[in-house]
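Please fill in the sequence for the structure shown.

STRUCTURE ENCODING:
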């Protein structure tokens, strides 16, 4: 549903406003709640993560139902989409300190990379399906079909989460106050060059890389001049690349490979975005986005795996909450690319933004040399 919604909301926003900037603004609102990820991590350490997950799915169900009703009654306005994006984004902000932390709690430390890769593989598999289904719905029965599907799927998610046998890890420690926990978490992260490097690259990719996603449907319509269904296929092909990359990581990656997969995958993703901005042929764009998806899988999988591997079990919630915070800075890239698209054009805005990201990635290779060395992950985990 995440990938289906992103396509449907982007195309609906473009249809309602004819403004590339306002399309980007919905993405800005969707990712803005990530800024509170550290605080959510602190809360998640005090409550049962299973119930937090159920509550989030219930909010997403209600939001999808409301948007479907508005579309059916022909009363949908842009501010409805903006508010819905913010509410869904508020739940997304809990993904790292809640669900991904739970993954780290139920597998051994040496299998963290494979576990997160498996999670990313399922995510990528449905990313293949989601945008295509969204494009078909828009071209046939309308956007309400996508939102009604969301009601069904999120409801199924609630049922699955309710049936899950999860016990909150017991701790004899008396939890400190929220402010103290946040300060402790920041000090803990500062001891690790690998965690700092991971957060730095997270910031670069989210500000200069993922910001292109709001303009991808706009570029496809204006430059490639294709239908909603074929726009959905573009995003599905990117998902196919991400699925392929995540599957390879799950099978072959060892802890000593994590940081290099993360760095080179991130760079490949950025290069693919630059090539996408310059492509004027649909089938060439499909190939470019497939390899972009492969690079994205290296970034998305290792981002969590590295932090879970290095951090102690007691600090994982806060450490993954910090990842959410740095993702939450990414929406400011959405505002930037939206403004550039309004002043210049969407394709040029994507080129400038991703090109800046490539420069920042090369700087990251220099500033964080430990991120491109084998065994740096094990050494850093021992030091922390």
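FILLED IN BY: designer on duty
SEQUENCE:
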């Amino acid at each position: 549903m995440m990938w289906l919604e992103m396509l449907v909301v982007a195309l609906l926003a473009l249809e309602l406003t004819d403004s590339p900037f306002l399309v980007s603004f919905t993405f800005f609102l969707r990712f803005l709640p990530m800024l509170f990820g550290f605080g959510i991590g602190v809360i998640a350490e005090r409550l049962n993560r299973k119930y937090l997950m159920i509550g989030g799915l219930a909010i997403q169900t209600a939001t999808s139902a409301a948007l479907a009703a508005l579309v059916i009654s022909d009363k949908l306005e842009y501010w409805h989409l903006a508010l819905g994006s913010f509410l869904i984004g508020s739940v997304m902000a809990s993904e790292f300190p809640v669900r991904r932390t739970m993954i780290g709690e139920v597998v051994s430390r040496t299998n963290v990379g494979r576990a997160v890769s498996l999670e990313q593989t399922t995510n990528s598999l449905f990313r293949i399906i989601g945008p295509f289904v969204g494009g078909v719905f828009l071209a046939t029965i309308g956007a309400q079909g996508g939102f009604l599907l969301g009601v069904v799927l999120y409801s199924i998610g609630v049922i699955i989460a309710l049936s899950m046998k999860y016990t909150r890890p017991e701790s004899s420690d008396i939890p400190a106050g929220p402010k103290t926990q946040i300060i402790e978490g920041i000090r803990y992260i500062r001891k690790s060059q690998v965690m700092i490097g991971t957060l730095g690259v997270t910031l670069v990719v989210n500000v200069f890389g993922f910001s292109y996603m709001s303009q991808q449907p706009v570029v496809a319509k204006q430059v490639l001049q294709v239908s909603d269904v074929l726009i959905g296929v573009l995003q599905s092909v990117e998902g196919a690349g991400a699925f392929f990359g995540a599957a390879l990581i799950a099978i072959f990656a060892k802890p000593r490979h994590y940081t290099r997969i993360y760095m080179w995958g991130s760079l490949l993703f950025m290069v693919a975005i630059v090539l996408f901005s310059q492509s004027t042929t649909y089938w060439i764009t499909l190939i470019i986005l497939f390899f972009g998806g492969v690079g994205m899988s290296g970034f998305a999988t290792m981002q969590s795996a590295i932090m879970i591997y290095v951090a102690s079990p007691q600090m994982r919630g806060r450490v993954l909450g910090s990842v959410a915070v740095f993702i939450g800075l990414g929406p400011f890239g959405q505002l930037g690319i939206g403004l550039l698209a309004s002043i210049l054009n969407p394709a040029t805005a994507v080129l400038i933004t991703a090109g800046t990201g490539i420069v920042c990635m090369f700087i990251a290779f220099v500033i964080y040399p430990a991120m491109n060395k084998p065994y740096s992950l094990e050494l850093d985990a021992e030091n922390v």
